[in-house]
Amino acid sequence: MELLIQTPSRLHLSLLDLNGSLGRIDGGVGLTLKKPSLVLELKEKGTGVQVEFIKPKNLSKSNIEDYVDRIGSSAIKMMKYLGIDKGLTFIVHENFPSHSGLGSGTQLSLAVGKLISDSVKHEIEVPKIASIVGRGGTSGIGVASFENGGFIIDGGHHCDDKREFLPSSASKALPTPILARYDFPEEWKVILVIPDVKKNVSGTEEVNIFQEYCPIPLEEVQQMSHLLLMKMMPAVLEKDLDAFGDSVNRIQDIGFKKIENQLQKPVIGEIMNLLRDAGAPGVGMSSFGPTIYAITDSVKDIVSAAHDALEGVGGYVMESEAQNYGCIYR
Fold first, then answer.
1. Which of 10, 178, 277, 285 is deepest in the core (most CB within 10 A)?
2. Are 289 and 312 in the same domain?
3. What range does the domain containing 271 cover?
4. Can you give the pLDDT at residue 200?
5. Would you state the pLDDT for residue 205?
């Protein structure tokens, strides 16, 4: 038995409500991307859970360790749920960086869960897999990207189900309901700029930030909601790039996204400004970064500016676009 699955990556544009005065918290808006992608193969062989890499020389030691830990943890949880006791080997054919703001943790965990459940002909819905492997505790964007792709808005958690402001890594809440999902214009290109800087916020520090800065002022949550409902969402449906880009630019200075940006190294903001100056209609940072994204229909100038921005910093630039479908078997 061999199965090979390919998953997308995702941009997390912003959390929506870290105030909670209406009885719900979190909520989010995000976009599914074709590149970078994860390609993971499952074979029934060996003993226990084994992980192999097709191109280990292209991966950092920390990235390999993170993938091994994530695959092993998710596999054990799924095998325990299904009552499976046999040797499984996972082969990583393609990957993307961990802790970069592109959602690798969720995609990897869900891919493992789906491969295992499908290998024993036990069909499980994606949100259920997410709950088994422990993903989607703050944002539902990664889970929805894995399942259906596209441009996604999730409705957050009821405060009875999640009583504290916590990042996904520390939350055991169930995945969130999806309020809206639209095809995103594929003619709009997404330029990813991933500077070679250590992620400024992660782990325990990320938990502390949620505790320190939340609740977000209600007026900023209202401003974010207004901008999303009356500008960003219509811009996607009407394919209005300038309006969408303006929405992206504005949300960088509102609510929890403002906090995420303020806590970054100065180079992140400098690169974002350079991309806007080069003509990108919308530029933002995904999640806690360090990945920066530019939405544009003029690739050449933005890519050139991105390479210039990375001089002296290091990193890489990738051209991508929306993916309006979820994971696929290859």
1. 10
2. yes
3. 189-321
4. 54
5. 75
